[in-house]
Write a structure and sequence with these properties.
14 helices, 9-stranded mixed sheet, Rossmann fold, alpha/beta
């Protein structure tokens, strides 16, 4: 009896999965080579400030003709880089002698790493467990595991475990520090393009005792006036505790490296990227659709910011799709969620806003910034975009096979080619990139990236920080120029 077409399709599906698995295993590195030095990035050597443009804003085109930017709203230029004559005094990063002093003073032991192992992690990861599977991996990082719904510190941040009470009992929070931390959540908002997020959008902040409490969003909007703002958007398989812990982690490391403004307002934009379906392929494609919706909600949130707000948005993995989607909408673009739905636009644009953006291992097509492509207005809506891609990222290996893509390789794994930059024309001056494969290896990790001093220094000018100088963790002469990340490559062999 002949086989039915359904049986034949099932066999083909199994064969395809077997082939993809074989390809993945062939790309996995030998564990003995993990952590070894890799070839340097393909960007040219850092340029000196004298050869860089005096002001990147002077070389960028104006915002769309639908609205003009007043002269008073022009973003100030970033200060030029200069290598200080002497290395500034070293500041203790988390895990240094300051922690030893705390351990001696407190009536409980702290699990400190041996001194010989502190330079290997975080910021220079080996192999870490991932919260998902092969096709829906999620982002790895310290404390993130595969333990179901409690995949961050085994649920230690859940108040029901009792650990938050214990931590707060021993480590009294600093109200002047916590008042600038916010979590903006769209988890209860309708997950359809063009829907108004405001009726269901919520905001939380810490009270004086260190507890998260709900607060009016109008209080947040009042606080960001005349202050720098840093917004973090994480990727797939992010639960609320990971969004909170990731925000605290990013602030702690960037602040320790002097790569964030001291008065910055820190916001976690928490979108519903937790696991929805048990099937990996179905789940990862649903997150791709939701990332567009989150981009619309993020853009709607930014529309309410006061005039002349100084905003930097960092997105990793699918967060690296949320961020350029929001910028595309702010730049006057139209967008759908690749689910056969109509394109939508914002009711208005904000040419005066133009945030800075940082993408880390972004799950977006490398061609989408090109003219006429899906996110071609992203650079119009941004003052500058820094793409930190990883050519060895294993989690983005199968990205071209996703339904919610145009089946090109990810911009977070390859960056832009010289041909793409030529197509951008004058807008190319708003784009910069850096390969961080020598930092992360094969890992797909936000937490390890921001904990690395070199990556933190690349982030600093986009976050609006003052020049941190030569960080103690970097050897003299190896720190990149602040302008080197903002100049176009020349002589690259990439096409």
């Amino acid at each position: 009896m002949p086989h039915s077409p359904l049986v034949a399709v099932t066999r083909w599906n199994r064969a395809i999965v077997a082939i993809l698995t074989a390809i993945l295993l062939s790309h996995l590195p030998d564990r003995s080579t993990i952590g070894q030095t890799v070839p340097p990035p393909r960007l040219p050597a850092a340029t000196t400030p004298s050869s860089a443009p005096a002001d990147p804003a002077q070389t960028t085109p104006t915002a769309p003709s639908t609205a003009s930017t007043p002269a008073a709203n022009v973003r100030p230029p970033l200060p030029a880089a200069s290598t200080p004559a002497a290395t500034p005094p070293a500041t203790e990063a988390p895990g240094g002698s300051a922690v030893d002093a705390i351990a001696n003073a407190l009536p409980l032991p702290l699990p400190l790493l041996p001194q010989s192992n502190r330079n290997s992690s975080p910021g220079a990861p080996k192999r870490r467990p991932r919260p998902g599977g092969i096709f829906d991996p999620g982002a790895a990082g310290p404390g993130i595991s595969q333990s179901g719904d409690q995949n961050f510190l085994d649920g230690a941040l859940d108040p029901r475990t009792g650990w938050p009470f214990v931590f707060l009992n021993h480590f009294k929070p600093r109200p002047e520090r916590l008042e600038a931390f916010w979590i903006v959540s769209t988890r209860e908002c309708p997950q359809e393009m063009g829907t108004d997020p405001w009726p269901k959008m919520t905001a939380q902040r810490f009270d004086e005792e260190g507890n998260l409490v709900e607060a009016p969003i109008v209080d947040l909007l009042a606080q960001v006036s005349n202050r720098p703002v840093f917004i973090q958007v994480q990727g797939s398989l992010t639960t609320p505790d990971i969004a909170l812990g990731g925000l605290l982690w990013t602030h702690a490391w960037l602040d320790s490296y002097r790569c964030l403004p001291a008065d910055a307002v820190i916001i976690a934009f928490d979108w519903p990227s937790q696991r929805v379906y048990r099937n990996d392929l179905r789940d990862i494609n649903e997150k791709g659709r939701r990332a567009y919706v989150a981009g619309y909600h993020l853009a709607s949130f930014l529309l309410k910011f006061p005039a002349n707000s100084r905003v930097c948005i960092l997105g990793q993995s699918y967060g690296g799709r949320v961020v350029p989607s929001a910028l595309h909408l702010l730049g006057g673009g139209a967008l759908n969620s690749q689910a056969h739905d109509p394109e939508v636009q914002l009711p208005c644009t904000r040419p005066d806003l133009q945030p800075y953006a940082i993408l880390i291992a972004a799950a977006s097509d490398r061609t989408w910034l090109d003219p006429g492509q899906r996110l071609d207005k992203a650079l119009v809506g941004a003052h500058g975009i820094l793409n930190l891609y990883n050519r060895r990222d294993e989690s983005l290996l199968f990205y071209p096979g996703l339904i919610r893509s145009n089946h090109h390789r990810a911009i977070g794994r390859l960056g832009l080619s010289n041909r793409d930059l030529d197509r951008l024309g004058p807008l190319a001056s708003r784009y910069a990139e850096q390969d961080i494969a020598d930092v992360l290896g094969t890992e797909h990790s936000l937490l390890d990236a921001v904990a690395n001093p070199r990556v933190a220094r690349w982030i600093a000018p986009y976050a609006g920080a003052e020049d941190p100088g030569v960080l103690p963790e970097l050897e003299a002469g190896t720190a990149p120029s602040r302008w080197s990340m903002m100049t176009r490559r020349s002589g690259s062999s990439r096409n």
